[in-house]
Structure formats: structure tokens, C-alpha cells
Amino acid sequence: MPRLGREREAVRLRLLVVRDKGKRVGRNPKTGVEVAIAPRRVMVFKPSNVLKAHVTGGLAEIEDDE
């Protein structure tokens, strides 16, 4: 049985954003030949303000405000 409280906490700690990456030119590291890399969508992790505060030691201040 999952812990709903922990899941809710995890939601407050991060934000996942979909970002479009454009077409670009890469290089084969072994041969040095240029290769076209097609555009694509990627997931980007963005830490929430709560997580940033926790890492820097300011979590107690945020919890007191709630």
C-alpha cells in the first residue's frame, strides 16, 4: 500500500516540465563526422522552492508559514 503522505510531499519537492529541443548538429566522437540530431521533446527536472529551501537549510521557515 503506497504512503499517500509521502507522495504528496514528493509532489511539493519537484516540477517536471516538457521542453522542446530544436534540431542541432552533433559529432561522432570516434570519427569526428558531423551528424544531424532531430528535434525532440525532453523532460526537465526543476526543483521547487521547498526543495531548494530544504537543501539550503531553510525548510523550518517555510513549514512555519503554512
TrEMBL record:
<dbReference type="Pfam" id="PF00216">
    <property type="entry name" value="Bac_DNA_binding"/>
</dbReference>
<dbReference type="GO" id="GO:0003677">
    <property type="term" value="F:DNA binding"/>
</dbReference>
<keyword id="KW-0238">DNA-binding</keyword>
<dbReference type="InterPro" id="IPR000119">
    <property type="entry name" value="Hist_DNA-bd"/>
</dbReference>
<dbReference type="GO" id="GO:0030527">
    <property type="term" value="F:structural constituent of chromatin"/>
</dbReference>
<comment type="similarity">
    <text>Belongs to the bacterial histone-like protein family.</text>
</comment>
<dbReference type="InterPro" id="IPR010992">
    <property type="entry name" value="IHF-like_DNA-bd_dom_sf"/>
</dbReference>
<protein>
    <recommendedName>
        <fullName>Integration host factor subunit alpha</fullName>
    </recommendedName>
</protein>
